[in-house]
Amino acid sequence: MILGALGGLVGSFIPKLIGLYKEHQDHKHEMEMMQFQLQNMDRIEHMQLEEAKAFAMLNTDASPYSVQEPVYEKTGNPFLNGLQIILMTYNSTVRPTVTYLLIGFYVLIKYFMIMSIIHSGVAWTSVAKDVYTGIDSDFIGAIIAFWFGNRSMYHLHRGNL
Question: Where are the alpha helices (DSSP H) in the chain?
Answer without folding.
Answer: 2-62, 78-91, 94-119, 127-131, 134-158
